[in-house]
Design a protein that fits this description.
about 170 residues, mainly alpha, Protein Binding, DinI Protein, Chain A, 5 helices, rod-shaped
Length: about 170
C-alpha cells in the first residue's frame, strides 16, 4: 500500500511538473466506504437481505429447540428406556446435530454470498454515478482512499455521489 501511495504521488508530481496544461487538471476524491454505507441502496439491500434471511434464522432456532428437547429427554429418560429405544434416540440426536451444523454452515455461506452479491451490485451503481459526475463536471481524475496520501475537502465528491444515488 505504501508503495502504491508512493507511486501515485510520484505520478501526480511528475504530471504537475511536466505540463503547463496540468494547471487545469481537475481531481476529485471519493470516500467509497462512506458512500456505500450512507447510500439508500445500501439500507434497502440490508433490509431486503435481512427479510430474506430471517426465515432461515427462525428455522434454525426451531431446529435447535427441538434438538435441545430431545437431548433433555435423553438425559432424563435414558435410564428407564429400553436399550434399543435409547440407542435410536441417541442416533436421532446425533443426526439432528449434524443436520443443524450443516444448516448453520449453509446459512453462513449463503449470507456471505448474498452480501457479496449486493455489495457488487451497489459498487457497480456507484461506479456509474461517479463516471457520470466525472463527465458532467469535467473531472480528469477521481481517487479513492486506497490511492490517496492526502486530500483537500474541496475535492471530495462523496456528497454529490450520495445525492445522485438518493435520486435513483
Amino acid at each position: 500500500m505504501t508503495k502504491t501511495i508512493g507511486l501515485m504521488s510520484l505520478f501526480l508530481s511528475t504530471l504537475l511538473l511536466a505540463s503547463p496544461a496540468v494547471a487545469e487538471l481537475k481531481i476529485g476524491y471519493l470516500d467509497l466506504s462512506r458512500v456505500l454505507e450512507d447510500s439508500p441502496q445500501y439500507a434497502a439491500a440490508r433490509k431486503s437481505l435481512q427479510k430474506e434471511l430471517d426465515r432461515r434464522e427462525r428455522d434454525l432456532r426451531a431446529k435447535a429447540e427441538q434438538l435441545k428437547k430431545l437431548e433433555d429427554k435423553f438425559k432424563r429418560d435414558s435410564k428407564v428406556m429400553s436399550e434399543g429405544e435409547a440407542r435410536r434416540l441417541e442416533r436421532d440426536i446425533l443426526t439432528r446435530q449434524r443436520q443443524l451444523k450443516n444448516s448453520r454452515d449453509e446459512y453462513r455461506d449463503e449470507l456471505s454470498l448474498r452480501q457479496n452479491e449486493e455489495r457488487k451490485k451497489l459498487l457497480q451503481e456507484v461506479a456509474e454515478v461517479v463516471k457520470q459526475i466525472g463527465k458532467d463536471e469535467g473531472f480528469d481524475l477521481i481517487l479513492t482512499p486506497e490511492s490517496v496520501a492526502y486530500r483537500s475537502p474541496r475535492v471530495d465528491i462523496s456528497d454529490k455521489v450520495l445525492s445522485r444515488l438518493k435520486k435513483k
